Structure formats: C-alpha cells, structure tokens
C-alpha cells in the first residue's frame, strides 16, 4: 500500500531559517515545499532576540506555504546541540501479558522506566534513543515486540539540554503560531541519515559547519555518542574577508560564495576580481589565492579546535573518518584542507533530494526522515496534521489534490513512547 505522510521540518539556524515540507512515501522523501530566509535574532546557534526570531520563522513558513498553497500547522523541530549532554540510561520491566509475548505496552513501559533517572532542574529532556533491548539476557535486540520473555531491559541514550535554550526555541515556535510534532537534537537527526550504516558503526565524526557555529557529532557502534558545538562558522570567514579587504559585509559574503577557496595550494592565481573598498571610489583587485589565505587561516584554526574536541572526547581513533556538511561544505577546497589538518579521510555530505541539494539542508532533511523513521517504528500513522487550511496558492503551483484530502483527516491522538517529548511540550504550553 502506498501510504503518504506529510512532514514539515523547521531548522532555526544562525544564518538562515529553513522550512521543508516533505512527503514520505514507502520510505522515500519527496520535498514539495521549501522556505529559506535569512535569520535574525540567532547568534552562534542560540536565540538572542525572540521577536526577531519569531518574525524570521514566520517569513520562512510563509514562503514554504506559498509553494503548496496550504497553511502549516505542525513542525518537526531541530534543537541545536549547544549545551547538549548525553547520558547512558537503562530500563527494566516484567513482561505483562499472560502468554509472555512482548507488546507495544511493554515497549512503552521499558522506555518509560529508563526515564526515571533524575534530570537536574536546569536541564530538560530532548530525546531518549534506545540502543538495544535485552530479553531474558538475550541482547542486541532492535525490536523486542512479538518475542517471548519474562524480563525486558533497554539500554539507551538520554539527550538533555539547558532549559533556557530549549524554552526559548519553544517560545519562538509557539509565538510563530506553530505546533510541535516532535523535537530532535539536530545532529542526531541529520547525522543519522548523512552517515552510512558502516560509518555509524565504525566510529565517524559528523561535522556541520553552519553560519555561526560548528557542530561535532560522533557516532560509534551505530549510535550518537558525543556532541560538541564550537562558536565558529562561515560568518567568521565573511567577517575576516570584510575586515582584510576593507569591503562591506554583503560584498564579502558574495566574494566568499563566488571566489572562496579553503586550500591555498589549489586556489587559482590567474584570475583577478574587483572588490569595492568601503569609503572609496576605487576598487581593489585580488586573486582567489589571496583570499584563500584569509579563509584558510580561519578554517585551519577551526579544524585545530575540532581536533582538540576529539581529544577532549577521549576519541582514540575514527575508523570511519570525518563527514562534513552545513553551508560551508560548499566552499571549494574545504575537504582538502580538512584532510590536511585532521589527517583522516574526509567526505562531504549533500542531501540528494530535488529542491534541497545543498549541504545547508542536511538538518532540515534529517528532521523529516528521523520523524518518519520513529513514526514507523512506533506505528504512529493514520493521518496528517502537518498542514491545515488552504491558502491562496502561488499562481504556478496550485495545491495538490492529495493534500486537500489529507487535510480533512484529523490525526487521532496517538500516545506513544517517544511522544514523551510531546507530553512535556504540552505541559510547557499550558
Ligand atoms: N557557496 C558557498 N561558499 C562558501 N560559503 C557558503 C556557501 N554557501 C553557503 N555558505 C555559508 O554557509 C553558512 C550557512 O550555512 P548553514 O545554512 O548551514 O548555517 P545555519 O544552519 O543557518 O547556521 P548554524 O548551523 O550555525 O546555526 C553561511 O556562513 C554561508 O555564507
Ligand atoms: Mg545549521
């Protein structure tokens, strides 16, 4: 049966807010709407101005809505990993049913029981990800439902973040008039799909270089094990160019996109381009190699900081190497420089979906796919509440018929294990 589920993801980044509307059919994603607007009010991945952020979110949502001619109700929200902490948790329950068959209810209860670990008052739960289930000492079970047993255990990772960070993000989304379907730690959702199974199992660092921050996420034995955020990103490159070339920020950003190169040895020295100088009539001429030195210095410093983080995380080795994404991954020569400094294999990740073939969309795409994966695991299907009423469509893109039908089906309230976050959100919005 071809069942299509609709999802809307929201990635509140320091450079831009991204909104994706995606249809998931038989496990494959089809992006049908995109909103991408410059963000205001976010620095280094954290919200510093609520009103400005709300306005930016509204604009991005509006852009995506216009593409499909429907209003957006509910989003899958990414939470930045600033101040995130991962804790190992365990849960144990006795199997309930008389015939000892493990059911959805047992699964719910064992995940619940793993949540009893007390969370300090200044922190809040974001996600609880099962690593393995154990049925009567038989371990490494991915899904225990349908198995026969007496005792069900679960090993998992609890991801928490600072209450302040989370509540400010939630406040902005709420003020933008949106409901939240699920929340996920950004690198959990994006890394999970950017890395291959082998990479996740062998030990790989997933690095998202955004505008104001760089997020490092390490996956080992198939799971996210470490996260860390450095307050450095592409905006620093723009600022450096603007200062050294004495050119306005907007020009510096353009030059970075058009001529930017991260690796001095490979940058071209032949072609010169003109750069306007602040407060002067004349223009200066520079080569790509010249600006690659400015960009390279900052990025070298960034990768040195990444190495320090690896050391701090106690990583001995990364057999799967490094995978880089985020807007800055588009910069020419970036992988060469990363290889040179990190001394390991480096590949770049770009999501391969029509309309979002940009590394900057890695998080927004990951959020949709992660939500869909969990919905499948927990059988949370049966309707779509992501979209609401019809809006006046853009001239060239009338609302697809299918969504009109779906919009009328109201999602039943499906209490789920991983809906714990949602429960908490309800509490928050009361
Ligand atoms: N072609 C390009 N060349 C160089 N840099 C680029 C290019 N395209 C985008 N960038 C840079 O990527 C950065 C934005 O990346 P991204 O959209 O991933 O950030 P963000 O998610 O908004 O920010 P963050 O994750 O830090 O909160 C900006 O600094 C932008 O200048
Ligand atoms: Mg980002």
UniProtKB/TrEMBL annotation:
Keyword RNA-binding: no
UniProt keyword Transcription, yes or no: no
One record GO biological process: FtsZ-dependent cytokinesis
Positions with biased composition (Basic and acidic residues): 409-419
Membrane topology label: Peripheral membrane protein
Region Disordered, annotated ranges: 387-419
Composition skew (Low complexity), residue ranges: 395-408
Gene3D superfamilies for this protein: 3.30.1490.110, 3.30.420.40
One Pfam family here: FtsA
Alphabetical keyword list: Cell cycle, Cell division, Cell membrane, Membrane
SHS2 domain: residues covered: 7-194
CDD domains for the chain: ASKHA_NBD_FtsA (cd24048)
Any one GO cellular component localisation term in the record: cytoplasmic side of plasma membrane
Subcellular location: Cell membrane
Primary residence: membrane
Function: Cell division protein that is involved in the assembly of the Z ring. May serve as a membrane anchor for the Z ring.
Family, similarity comment: Belongs to the FtsA/MreB family.
Oligomeric form and interacting partners: Self-interacts. Interacts with FtsZ.
Protein name in the entry: Cell division protein FtsA
Species annotation: Paenisporosarcina quisquiliarum
